[in-house]
Amino acid sequence: MILRFCTRTVVRNILSFNSVVPKLFLLALPTQPVPTLQHTCERYLILLEPFVEVDELKRTKQLVQEFLKPGGVGEKLQKGLEKKALNTDNWVSLTTDYLDNRLPVVAYSNISGSFPRMDFRDKRGQISETVPVDYLGGKPLCMNQYSQLLSSCRIPGLEMDSVVFHGKTSYPSRYITLAYNSQFFMVDVYNSDGTPLTVHQLCVQLERICSSSLETSTEPVGILTSLNRDSWSKCYDRLIQDKPNKEALSAIQRSICVVCLDKAMPQVPDDMYSRGNVLQMMHGGGSQWNSANRWFDKSVQFIIGEDGAFGNNISHSCADGTIGMTLTDYVSASIKKLEIIESPTVPLPTPQKLHFNITADIKKAIEEAKQSIDKIVQDLDFSILSFSHYGKNFLKANKMSPDPFIQMAIQLAYYRVHLQHCASYEAASMRLFRQGRVGEIPSTSSASVAFVMAFNDPNKKNTEKVDLLRKAIEVHKWNTSMEISGQTVFGHFLGLQHQATEKNIPMPDIFTDASFDKVFDYRLATSQVQSKSGCLPCACPYQRKTYDICYTLLKDDMAFVLSAFKTNTENNSEELKKAVEDALLDMRTIL
């Protein structure tokens, strides 16, 4: 009953969010500019400095000069990209939309949020305020992703996936998909007069499902969405040849969201709950637990466990982490407010169970998906650092810019663990521009390397260390300003590479040079995602040799979620977590 009560309040508040998404400011926002070729190449050479020797840098400078020659291949690609920019809302988003990645969306693409353990018995109500327009530095941000967050779904394709946004149609969805015991149900959440169902009405519908869908021998079709994209695409094409299957798949895709009612996971000590909850939100725990009680292609899944587990899983192809966290905070705040509404006595339609006709080859694919997801579950490792020694207030009091300070701590921690510097980036919101998504701020610089080396040198005075730290922070702030203003190095080069591919031009030497990978083959992917509700932002490495670090930075404390793959024996999330904590404490001593 506690589980069902929380679920119905969550659903009510998703509907509330769906009705108050702010108006879009697409027409008022500028399009993202194409940086000049000269500027990008100059910055590229600066970014190279920490990673290459003098001779290699000299060779790369020659390649850059060749690329910049008037009338050369660089100018040709630049003109093609500028022409594309004139005819699209955002030329960068076209090349970085995650849809051509053929790895499973579980772990490699989807992102999630992990709430503190909930006491569902005391959480009621809905919220009626609107979602305010986001601003950065007094400038409005693109709100388009909010309209794409609900009633959307990723569709598997053989070489590239696609995304459908049913919320923008003339007949938007009026139901959610409920996942329970690895079965799927369509649950209407609006009355015939267009008003949302009350909490009591939703409870009646959930009771119907929970009492009628005890565990059965039904094949867990949802686990197919955890396969690599090419395998899932082939299964999908076979499934839609059958009319009932096609209708069931369409029903899930068109629904507002998926709400997953999970069975309880194995009990762990309270101090291990956060880590266990993060894993449950990210992948469901494996084929024996809740991984089949998912539709990983869906834009938003809210996950509620019998044991108080609560969080979400979001398709990165539909929205970025900051957008998902806004929805998460909205729902969390809504649960804490009391709602008392007398329910009408009108009869409610029975929730419709979705049926699939499973052939022998699909059944075989399901077994393969079970093995695949179990390997991911075994391979993926998370470590969580709750750092309560200081936060933004302390850093600001010492005239340190908080986010760049954290980035330098991460740089120091990585060096202490691996005894080398690495290519790294911090995710940046590009929503100052129309249809903007995510940019990449270079975190490793000559200044950050100088600070790290000096900090570990016992012969250096604290005053010198502080001076180098401030210089590294200023460089990171400048790189951040460049990225969010559209002067992106990685995005620009990626756009030029796409131009070469589209026009069948041989890839220029500047992109095949060994130096290129040293700057952009990232070993550290980091992002700051703020939460008002105590929700932990979670993401996974996009490749096996990379760490991912998500963090929230509050007034007096911080939280870090670090992830790595165990099969890469060089990386260890627990060891890096300890190094981050030590770096933060050690850096405090010099302030």
Automatic annotation (TrEMBL):
Q: Which superkingdom does the taxonomy of this entry point to?
A: Eukaryota
According to the UniProt entry, the coiled-coil residues are none
A single GO molecular-function term is: carnitine O-acetyltransferase activity
What GO CC annotations are associated with the protein? peroxisome
Per the UniProt entry, what are the Gene Ontology biological process annotations, in alphabetical order?
carnitine metabolic process, CoA-linked
Keywords for this protein: Acyltransferase, Transferase
**Annotated Choline/carnitine acyltransferase domain residues:** 33-581
* A Pfam family reported for this protein in Swiss-Prot or TrEMBL: Carn_acyltransf
Residues at the active site: H316 (proton acceptor)
Q: Does the keyword section mention Transferase?
A: yes
Which family is it part of? Answer: Belongs to the carnitine/choline acetyltransferase family.
Protein name stated in the entry: Carnitine O-acetyltransferase a
Species this protein is from: Haplochromis burtoni (Burton's mouthbrooder)
